[in-house]
Amino acid sequence: MTAAIEGFLLSIGLILAIGAQNAFVLRQGLKRQYVFTVTTICALSDAALIGAGVFGLGSLIREVPDLIMVVTVGGAVFLFVYGALALRRALSPGALQAAEDQGLSYRAAILTVLAFTFLNPHVYLDTVVMLGSLSARHDLDGRMAFWLGGALASATFFYSLGYGARWLSPLFARPSAWRVFDVIVGVIMWGIAASLLATLF
What we know:
This protein has helices at residues 2-15, 20-31, 35-54, 57-63, 65-91, 106-118, 121-135, 140-164, 175-198. The chain is an all-alpha fold.
């Protein structure tokens, strides 16, 4: 139980920060589009990554720094493009009507959330390397409990974010709110992209 609580709290601490993936989940929640699919992909991906770290993949990641570099560059490019699209939406009044905006297709939403998840080098450093290393002091049963606690934390967070967003729907019924939201998202995406590229120099 102690290991499970530790895994839960550490995982929550790592994913609470407003990042690219969280902003996308929030947007889909506000639009009520594919919320279950998007949040489930996030939760299952985190569970798989945490499990990989807890059960040994973390050491491999540390030994192959070129892998992190490739993911870093790919992630930065993806975030820059997505940020540009968000800023373009903010400048285009016709795209700000939530009721009329059809948003992403089902396939595009899946591909986008997968890109936010697996093209982010921090997800490997946080879930695979960091959580994997922190779990190493437990025995096998303890590591299993640690992993389950971390997976539960991720699922709790993403389902709460995706489905809790609907409480903000009255605010986002106004085009001006979407304008502000997309500007913030665009700035966050570009900021994260710049910080990723900065780690290479």
